[in-house]
Amino acid sequence: MNLLFVASECTPFVKTGGLADVIGAVPKALAALGVSVRVLIPSYPELASVLGSGKEVMGFDDLFGGPARLVSAKAEGLELVLLDAPHLFDRVGNIYLGPDGQDWPDNDLRFAALSYAGAQIGLGLLGGWTPDVINAHDWQAGLVPAYLAQHDGPVPPVVTTIHNIAFQGVFDATRLSALRLNADQFTTQGVEYYGKVSFLKAALALSQKITTVSPTYAAELMLPEFGMGLDGLLRERQADLHGILNGIDLDVWDPETDPALVAPYSARSPKGKARNRSEIEGRFGLTPGEGPLFCVISRMTSQKGLDLLLDCLPALVGQGGKLAVLGSGDRDLERAYVKASTQYAGAVGTIIGYDEDLSHLMQAGSDAILIPSRFEPCGLTQLYGLRYGTLPVVARTGGLADTVIDANDAALAADCATGFQFAPINATMLGNAISRACAVHAQPKLWAAMMRRAMRHPVGWDVSAKAYLDVYQAVQKG
Length: 478
Ligand code: ADP
Ligand code: GLC
Fold this sequence. Notes:
single chain, 478 residues, alpha/beta, nine-stranded mixed sheet, six-stranded parallel sheet, binds adenosine-5'-diphosphate, binds alpha-D-glucopyranose
């Protein structure tokens, strides 16, 4: 089977969140199942050297305002197709946001171009390689099935994967013709969404199947509290909606070989974890000590519930805990954590920014990772935490609910707990979970047993890659 992935980011080239990690990892797992996967992504400046090593396979005289080309290249074990469109993607800074922190004003054209290129490849225009199925990811690839619908003749089926329904790509209806969408697509069965053009709505209406990144989020998406206006459409499409749990790249995230660690370790021989802890204490200005070291590695947005954690700091510190925070995003949250680091000097440390290597070190050296998200489609940091024996303390929602086994009395008695869950999602219950974690941490044997169990919990891609393949095979037949 030939499969085309269309996505806006991909690890290790360009990443703003978990989407990139998934796009960088699944193709390898699918390749092991005999699928030939190519990944279409924009050629941002971060990809300049890969672009230079590639071969042009298709040209466009005018792709939404300028000349463009598709370049195929191999890098980091992936078969890439780069959309080289300098007028849209050759920009310094965040891939979605301009220097003012706002969306790039032409984001509609930028990701329409990505979708349009995906559709062209679907029509066989790459020469020598035609996808049997296209898997489009998130709103940025949402118009792939809309462009295919404008073609007379056979087109490949499209599967759309929702990584986060909070981002929908909604633009003014006056943009329809600039987006090269035919007027007859502006209907409730097509791209129209409350009088506007919605890329994600188009994808959900027009794709043969829809997947999302955990079974619990698949169920939540059909509820008004989580569906963000698209729950009705998803209820209609329930038979075609599949929740497939994310995995992680076990080669990139391996505490025995991870180059970002100061000391390697494993479930059998966990001693090295302590040296990584000392390194974190130094980097975050924390006083060395015995109490549990919690960490946060996160985008700072209301999704991630980090405002709830601020309310719990007195209790966390009061119980002898320490906290290291790495993140960036919302300015008020950034300021609040920087302030807390002064207020609780030596017990709370904050680094504002994005640092891939430091995130690995924190997963290695911390005792527990806090993820109090209000919603979480899957979440990857709890999976990295499990793999590194850093017990997740998580809100019971989405993929967090599906991947962490709460250390309640029954689970502890049955020796199966791997972390701590809390619900309902508020500061009181988060504080309660932190206290439970502190209490277990004070029993070193119990904590060590949970750590070992967490490290053995299967978090790779093999099971989920097969589930994706089943979906692709179903649309191929259908
Ligand atoms: P989301 O995609 O919603 O941000 P995930 O948990 O799926 O949430 O993925 C987040 C990814 O981004 C993880 O790989 C995490 O380690 C990484 N990450 C988040 N914030 C930072 C940061 N400040 N520095 C380094 N890595 C980060
Ligand atoms: C999104 C979600 C996150 C998920 C990631 C990868 O960014 O917020 O929960 O893990 O996509 O699917």
